[in-house]
Amino acid sequence: MTEQPQTFRIAAVPADGVGIEVVEAGRAVLEAIAGAASGRFAFAWQDFPWGSEYYANHGRMMAEDGLDQLKDFDAIYFGAVGWPTVPDHVSLWGLRLKICQSFDQWANIRPVEFLPGIQSPLRKADTTDLNWVVVRENSEGEYAGFGGRNFAGRGPGGEVAVQSAVFTEAGCERIIRFAFDLARGRAHKKVSSVTKSNAQQYGMVLWDDVFARVATDYPDVETESVLVDAMSAKFVLRPEDLSVVVASNLNADILSDLGSALAGSLGLAASANLNPERRFPSMFEPVHGSAPDIAGQGVCNPVGAIGSAALMLDHFGLHDEAKRVHRAIEATTGSGIRTRDVGGTATTREVTAAIIDNLAG
Ligand code: GGG
């Protein structure tokens, strides 16, 4: 009797702008990987045409029962959200943050990888030995969504807005433990914790306290606590000192963009929004946004989305296949096939085709 392939069900949500082009690219790479797997596994895709265009027609970013439609998939493959016709906070909260928070995808992993053939703005002769991971708390903190605006009777210029950050001990502890566990599997066993606890004296001091307590369970892992402003400088001046960097939602959002810019382009950066308990699907997406200025031109960088597809393969336990995708990306950038954001002339599809060709290597 022939064995049935294991089928992974993936919900594709390209959403806005270049999200559509890069999801097409990552999907082609995943299909090529499955095609070469001699029937061991397969992917079953379902498309969800949600995003800012859907908003124009329906007044919402995703279907009313959208979360119900997504909840039984093995993973969500996401593109990018944001378009000039919809206020950014409406599009973000209506789709990406709604999915992350509803599915308790509390760990956002954002590797900072330096690829061969890609020029880094860092003043170092060779950056290919650099590699660190930003672990972003993805469920609370500054993006907890608490606050309000008050116009009442204050006259012109008198409006007040409050935006509260929420830090729970349990929320801090789970992401910090996640970072330590990740560090244990790396050559450089180190966790750098980032806050602004000198100025934000409640939530971030709680974070610092939890970090110090959890660290005692990991005596084999080196630690440091660094303020976010100092960490920004360290990213530029001492990147070789970094391994796992754990930070709150906002701080890690900013630091991971800085990291990917230092690696050469935001278009290169991959990410995984994980629900580590696997009660809900995890979501894989490039770090970059929808880039309306170049959307639809076929020139955006697919590497971040394809790297995110590799993180999805890892999540499925297909570690060899994930490594093959990484090697194919390296072979492609190393051979000079690059999109224009990283100094090349290749189109999105040309880079994708080269990565697929290099899967065999
Ligand atoms: N693919 C990532 C994406 O669409 N990002 C848009 C954005 O503004 N994200 C804010 C965030 O990461 O919280």
Automatic annotation (TrEMBL):
Superkingdom, taxonomy of origin: Bacteria
Pfam families to which the protein is assigned, alphabetical: Iso_dh (PF00180)
InterPro entries: ICDH/IPMDH, IsoCit/isopropylmalate_DH_CS, IsoPropMal-DH-like_dom, TTC_DH
Occurrences of domain Isopropylmalate dehydrogenase-like (ranges): 9-355
Required co-factors: Mg(2+); Mn(2+)
Record EC number: 1.1.1.83
Keywords from the UniProt entry: Manganese, Metal-binding, NAD, Oxidoreductase
Family: Belongs to the isocitrate and isopropylmalate dehydrogenases family.
Reactions this protein catalyses: (R)-malate + NAD(+) = pyruvate + CO2 + NADH
Enzyme superclass (EC): oxidoreductase
Protein name: D-malate dehydrogenase (decarboxylating)
GO MF annotations, alphabetized: D-malate dehydrogenase (decarboxylating) (NAD+) activity; magnesium ion binding; NAD binding
